[in-house]
Amino acid sequence: MTAEEQITKMKKAINQALKVLGDRFGSTEGDVERAIDELKASMLTAPAAVAQPPQGAAAVTAGV
């Protein structure tokens, strides 16, 4: 999966979660569970390079 596809998948999952959480009276527990599952799945398949901080950041904070 390319980075663009991953970003698109994550945006879709976040938008769905916001919709479900914003409409608590119109959403079922199943809707909430599906939204959470989609968010978890989108984060688990994220490329490792995106989750890592920049290389220089560790050196700067270590010197403080």
Folded structure, characterized:
- The chain has 64 residues and is an all-alpha fold.
- 75% of the residues lie in helices and 0% in strands.
- Helix 1 runs antiparallel to helix 2.
Write the layout of secondary structure elements.
Layout: H1 3-22, H2 29-44, H3 48-51, H4 55-62
Entry keywords:
single chain, 64 residues, elongated
User: Which segments are poorly predicted (pLDDT under 50) over 5 or more consecutive residues?
Assistant: none
Structural class: mainly alpha
What level of helicity do the residues show?
over 70%
Mean pLDDT: 74
The biggest beta sheet is recorded as: none
Distance between the termini: 38 Å
Based on CA atoms alone, the radius of gyration comes out at 16 Å
Order of helices and strands: HHHH
Tell me, what's the shape?
Answer: elongated
Number of strands: 0
Beta-strand content estimate: under 5%
Q: What's the tally of helices?
A: 4
